[in-house]
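Wait, mind explaining this?

_____
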Amino acid sequence: MKILLLNGSPRKNGTVAGLLRAVAEGLDEKHQVDWIDVYDLRMQPCIACMKCRPDGECCLSKDDAHRLGRMIRQSDGLIVGTPTHWGNMSAQLKLLFDRNVPAFFTQRSNGLPIPRHKSKPAVIVTACTWPWPLNFILAESRGAIRAVRKILRCGGYKILGTLVKPGSKHKPEISNRLLRKAKTLGARF
């Protein structure tokens, strides 16, 4: 299987990246993993022209968003990690998804989506500065997970699980329990 791992964090050695590495360590060695640091990509912002829907690809001049769209289409599974920003995913990850709507689904003439990735596996990883249980009560971590899950479900992905690290500002270390859970999620691919 070709697994595409999207690190939506600007911190390459931060909490989200550490959790993503643990999920990748749990993957079987026969899987090919492509690690993408989304903040390294050069992407123009989406202009909401909606031309990508009938054309199947963004009409903006070629950039990294186009390349990643092809990688998403060719992957057999996704692992998506993001820090929680205002109860949502990071801006760069959202930009990548906005520019690649056709990589996730096509549309019938009545506008209903047809998923491109029916039953492909996916895992969602997030970290939040709010401590437990405030990260869920205030819908911070829950909001980031919900936003990524919505996109993946539109694409037809089967979400194998989610991984949340609360309180990352004051306790950035990842517990052994969370590392074990991450590796277990990777093994489920």
